[in-house]
Amino acid sequence: MKITTQLDVSVVAVDLDDEVTIMLDLEAPAVDADQRRPPASLEIVLDRSGSMSGAPLEGAKDALIALVRRLEPTDNFGLVTFDDTAQVVVPAGPISDREEVIAQISRVTAGGTTDLGAGLFRGLRELKRIAHSGGTLLVVSDGHVNAGLHDVIDFVRVAEKAHSGGIVISTLGYGEHYDETLLTAIARSGSGNHVFASDPDAAGAAIAGEAAGLLAKTLQAVTLTLVLRPAVQMVRLYNDLPGHALPDGRIMIEIGDLYAAEKRRLLLKLKVPAMSDLGAAEVATLELEYIELPRLIQHIAKLLVSVNIVPGTDAARRLVHPAVESEKLFQEAQNAKKLASEAFERDEVGSARALLVEAKSHLNRALSLVPDEAAGGFEREIAFVDQMTGLASERSAQYMSKLSRSSYHQMNRKRGRMDDSGGGETGAA
Q1: Which of 162, 173, 335, 415 has its C-alpha lying 20 to 30 A from 50's C-alpha?
Q2: C-alpha to C-alpha distance for 368 and 366, rounded to whole angstroms
Q3: Three-state SS string across 380-403, please?
């Protein structure tokens, strides 16, 4: 894996407290053409409640059939559906009889209420039964939970426990009436992806995209552990990733799995205490731990983060690195986008539009700092925010909440993965 770091400032004034922002860029290795891909394990948990009747359910079934045709016979696949109860439609295991699996998917029909908890628990049990080195579970739902487990925190605990056992949970929100707060929380805690699809075509593209990432995975269980020097504190992790304070004072951040040649970018701010000795001073160590596929080789990479302590007159002339400063502004824009999503969810459209204007302001400032060759991603994000601002007067607040939340997920939690897309709805123009 390629790993690079950059600080916003490399010098700190002697005897003064200061803050330093670290930008960490990761790039997964490409697929080795000479090595056979290990069997993948994918469990689908599909909402078949009454609201999925018609085009939504038929579109999801078509996408799953296309997925099954793409998998190898040695890959593990399973399907659990749920309405007021959970049903195992395709027992998890190798695809020994592809046409029978397709026939089982085709026979799924719409049912009653929405007990997502029942489907999630049953899907996890199926996946754990056959996946001994981790797997992926994809939840597809179009509604709010109205039976069984309800509280977001309970779903978060289930997802966290599953991820601790090597299972990644992703979510696909279908249509305008699902609970985006719940589905994004499950995906965050399960170190997976969350996407929004408003129609069958977008849902098909989302399912295909999740499968593509699974089949091209080259790094698994990537974690970043931050070892801080005495009195140094982490002020902020800009990316909304699961983090844990370890008993020895270290901070562990869950990055998740990376597919071939995938890029990720993290941004974190440290508070550096006043130091009286001039010269180089270590402030932290970054420890990256991951498993390389398909050989299942465990790697640990350590990077020292240091600053140079200089007289105050020298520090006053320091320059802020434009790439790091522009990324800080980019992430401030993402935070405004998330707040806009929450305002749309409360049907406060005026407040949401104002937050989108704020996001664009941050992005314009970021664009002014980057060289021409790096401007494309910022320009696409500005265009997307403009598009959302225009759509806010045409589409429902529910649609806008889901569109902005999905875009936030892609550009904050998965920053680097989809920089060319502009974020938002999968399959959207």
Answers
A1: 162
A2: 5
A3: HHHHHHHHHHHHCCCCCHHHHHHH
Tokens of 319: 């320059």
List Cβ neighbours of 197 (8 Å cut-off, separation of 6 or more). 172, 173, 174, 175, 203, 205, 206, 425, 426, 427
3-state helix, strand, coil in the chain (%, to 5): 40, 30, 30
Helix/strand/coil for 341 = helix
Beta strand 86-94 with 135-141 is unpaired
Separation between Cα atoms, residue 57 and residue 174, nearest integer Å? 10
Handedness of CA 161, 163, 165, 168 (dihedral sign): positive
HSE value, Cβ hemisphere, 13 Å, CA-based, for 140: 31
Architecture of the domain made up of 2-31+218-315? Sandwich (2.60)
Instruction: Tell me which long-range contacts 232-237 makes (C-beta under 8 A, separation of at least 24).
Output: 232/270, 232/271, 232/272, 232/273, 232/283, 232/284, 233/270, 233/271, 234/268, 234/269, 234/270, 234/271, 235/19, 235/269, 235/270, 235/271, 236/268, 236/269, 237/266, 237/267, 237/268
User: Tokens 């800009």 sit at which residue?
Assistant: 238
Cis peptide leading into residue 294 (ω within 30°): yes
Distances (CA, A) of 25 to 22, 31, 425: 10, 19, 25
Question: With b meaning 16 or more CB within 10 Å and e meaning fewer, what string describes 173-183?
Answer: bbbbebbbebb
Mean pLDDT of 122-132: 92
* pLDDT digits 0-9 by tens, 284-323: 999 999 999 888 899 999 999 999 999 999 999 999 999 9
Residue 424 predicted with pLDDT over 60: no
For 53-104, the pLDDT digits (tens) are 998 899 999 999 999 999 999 999 999 999 999 999 999 999 999 999 999 9
Nearest 10 degrees: Cα torsion 143, 148, 154, 157? -90
- Res. 279: pLDDT tops 50: yes
Q: Map residue 253 onto helix, strand or coil.
A: strand
CATH superfamily of 41-215: von Willebrand factor, type A domain (3.40.50.410)
Nearest alpha carbon to residue 274 among 238, 321, 307: 307
> pLDDT at residue 250 above 60?
yes
Adjacent-strand bridge partners of 244: 252
Strand runs labelled E in 159-246: 167-174, 191-197, 217-228, 233-237, 243-245
**pLDDT of residue 421 exceeding 70:** no
